[in-house]
């Protein structure tokens, strides 16, 4: 087995330039799932990935249609009793690139500058998909893979994976596996290999507040009509108390508290206030009283305003009382919180706090529960050992503040736990202008994935 490991690693090292070139080709396709204008690019990306799987040697490669964008599937199966099967998840869609003027390179030229590859999707998550495919290619080239491998790559993660749930139910037998390898996470730093064992869930809403039937002259009607923009601001301001706690009725009733040992582990992570201020550029931090920034991000629920719109926002002045106002509001949820319950808590808050001078409505946009994976799962141990071999230090285990709905969907629909890893860095500007991928870390990631397959396959 050690000879096969070494052969696979050597093959990956010899083909590192070709791996980078393939990644650049993939990043250059503008697979933006939020825009109908990029539907052709979405299909092109899916076909590109399917073709790559066929070249590696995968069978039963197909593009499965959904009500939205297709799912790419392929498998490399050796039918022998006792072999484990790893299902690798990924998404090939990317975020929009606006504001375009803030990019220093063309977001779809995949430009290498120093140790970094710049381009939309380089880190999230085309780089992670290609690291997985490159590792699998190296393992197959070395000889018989130690595990069976399946790929499932969707094209709608950046819009909430609306059609993946039905696909999982319909194709549960096809997707059967012992564990999911999900590289859609990231690392704390280039020298801190990281495994994520918990993800927050999400409940996303659009809140609309209505006042007069149409925009009004602020001189003729100001002081007599409740301004919807002001009413919305008042409602939002009341959603947190002075200690930074969310005030929705019953919001914390189901929140799973961290154990003392878990808080001690989190305290050892290199995530103090100075780290977050350096990452964000914020002058100071804020949040729920009694918890560190790392705890608030990884293990506590939140409520954030993602966008506001109302009235006249163009150049110059226009003195109006707007007829309506809108806010995009997201809530990050922790284990045991139910998105459906949170929706009703939101409605109850508005019933209690909204004045009779306005009308309001809530539109549910997307959501999903939090997920929690045992850090001692055999596959997690296999990945931890692989990272320790490559980086020369034990990886850190962390809770992550973001949401990956597919993790909880896999648990609920397929009964499969996920190993969450990835080789993106906090400074990769994911979802922002100048997204990048740190190539030395990416190459180390390929090595660690190669060793993961051998480690996991060798376990009893």
TrEMBL record:
InterPro entries, alphabetized: Cyt/Met_Dipeptidase, Peptidase_M20, Peptidase_M20_dimer
Pfam families in the record: M20_dimer, Peptidase_M20
Domain Peptidase M20 dimerisation: from-to ranges: 197-356
Listed GO biological process terms: proteolysis
Transmembrane regions listed in the UniProt entry: none
Keyword Metal-binding: yes
SUPFAM superfamilies according to UniProt: Zn-dependent exopeptidases
Signal peptide (from-to): none
This protein's UniProt keywords: Hydrolase, Metal-binding, Protease
Single annotated GO MF: peptidase activity
Keyword Metal-binding: yes
Protein name (record): Acetylornithine deacetylase/Succinyl-diaminopimelate desuccinylase
Organism: Longilinea arvoryzae
């Amino acid at each position: 087995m050690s000879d096969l490991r070494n052969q696979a690693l050597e093959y990956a090292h010899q083909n590192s330039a070709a791996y980078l070139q393939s990644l650049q080709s993939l990043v250059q396709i503008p697979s933006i799932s939020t825009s109908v204008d990029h539907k052709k690019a979405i299909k092109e990306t899916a076909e590109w990935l399917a073709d790559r799987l066929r070249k590696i040697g995968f069978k039963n490669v197909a593009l499965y249609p959904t009500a939205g964008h297709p799912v790419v599937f392929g498998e490399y199966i050796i039918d022998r009793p006792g072999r484990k099967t790893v299902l690798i998840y990924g998404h090939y869609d990317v975020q929009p690139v606006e504001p375009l003027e803030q990019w220093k390179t063309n977001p779809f030229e995949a430009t290498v500058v120093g140790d970094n590859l710049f381009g939309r999707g380089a880190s999230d998550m085309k780089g992670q998909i290609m690291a997985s495919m490159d590792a699998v290619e190296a393992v197959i080239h070395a000889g018989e893979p130690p595990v069976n491998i399946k790929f499932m790559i969707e094209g709608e993660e950046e819009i909430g994976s609306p059609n993946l749930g039905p696909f999982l139910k319909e194709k549960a037998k096809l997707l059967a596996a012992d564990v999911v390898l999900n590289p859609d996470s990231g690392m704390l730093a280039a020298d801190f290999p990281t495994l994520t064992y918990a993800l927050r869930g999400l409940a996303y809403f659009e809140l609309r507040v209505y006042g007069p039937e149409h925009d009004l002259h602020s001189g003729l009607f100001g002081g007599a009509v409740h301004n919807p923009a002001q009413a919305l601001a008042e409602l939002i301001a009341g959603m947190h108390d002075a200690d930074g706690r969310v005030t929705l009725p019953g919001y914390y009733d189901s929140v799973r508290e961290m154990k003392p040992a878990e808080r001690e582990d989190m305290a050892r992570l290199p995530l103090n206030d100075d780290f977050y201020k350096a990452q964000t550029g914020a002058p100071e931090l804020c949040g729920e009283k009694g918890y560190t920034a790392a705890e608030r991000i990884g293990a506590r629920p939140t409520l954030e305003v993602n966008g506001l719109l109302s009235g006249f926002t163009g150049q110059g002045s226009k003195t109006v009382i707007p007829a309506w106002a809108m806010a995009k509001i997201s809530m990050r949820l922790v284990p045991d919180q139910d998105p459906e319950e949170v929706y009703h808590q939101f409605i109850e808050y508005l019933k209690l706090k909204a004045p009779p001078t306005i009308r309001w409505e809530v539109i549910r946009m997307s959501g999903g529960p939090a997920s929690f994976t045992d850090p001692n799962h055999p596959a997690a141990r296999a990945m931890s050992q692989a990272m320790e071999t490559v980086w020369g230090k034990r990886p850190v285990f962390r809770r992550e503040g973001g949401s990956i709905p597919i993790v909880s969907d896999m648990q609920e629909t397929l009964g499969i736990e996920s190993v969450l890893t990835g080789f993106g860095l906090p400074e990769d500007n994911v979802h922002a202008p100048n997204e990048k991928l740190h190539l030395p870390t990416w190459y180390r990631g390929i090595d660690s994935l190669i060793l993961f397959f051998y480690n996991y396959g060798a376990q009893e």
